[in-house]
Write a structure and sequence with these properties.
Length: 191
């Protein structure tokens, strides 16, 4: 009988020790992917897409294209026309153009690089739609832009106000950056 209880006690002890430890395979999916980075980009002409894909390659990050529910035409982007769609949206800080697609499981990303062109000195309103559609609390958000001459400072300030609970880092304009310069900047973010 003593042998039976000793064996039973040993088996129970082994079960308890096994239950306390957790191997990498047993961790939750969120824990396994907590170091993942996403590069989400909005691009009408292809310039921002090219820059965003370069960032994603350097970071070995996933990518997500922010696709408007209603595509922008060349007339929509004709800034010379006062009432073109882009101008009308940019003048209305409450405008939130609809997005056609959604990110699968945004919780899996610890950091999101948000890439966009600068429209009238700021991020396009569809970027506001994008960030407001996600729970970004606790995430690192890094804005990057392409622009013919404007900087990213206003867009970064706007995103800080919209991304409640997120760590919104200083943004970077990507035009004219060498690949080595871009890599050095990204490395400095310590994502």
């Amino acid at each position: 009988m003593k042998k039976f209880f000793a064996t039973l006690l040993a088996a129970l002890t082994l079960c308890m020790l096994t239950a306390c430890g957790t191997s990498a395979e047993e961790k939750s999916p969120a824990a396994q992917t907590s170091d993942k980075i996403l590069v989400a980009y909005f691009s009408c002409t292809g310039n921002t897409k090219k820059a965003a894909l370069e960032v994603a390659e350097l970071l070995k990050a996933d990518t997500f294209e922010i696709v408007p529910a209603q595509a922008y035409t060349s007339d929509d982007l004709n800034y010379q026309v006062e009432n073109c769609r882009a101008n009308v949206e940019q003048k209305d800080s409450a405008a939130r153009p609809a997005i056609k697609n959604k990110i699968d499981n945004p919780a899996q990303y610890k950091a999101i690089i948000v890439a966009f062109p600068i429209w009238w000195g700021a991020e396009p309103r569809i970027i506001d739609t994008f960030v407001e559609s996600l729970n970004l609390s606790g995430k690192v958000i890094v804005p990057v832009c392409t622009s013919g001459g404007s900087d990213i400072h206003s867009a970064t300030s706007n995103l800080r106000a919209l991304c409640k609970g997120a760590d919104v880092r200083d943004g970077q304009r990507l035009n004219g950056m060498s690949k080595d310069g871009l890599k050095a900047w990204l490395d400095g973010l310590k994502l």
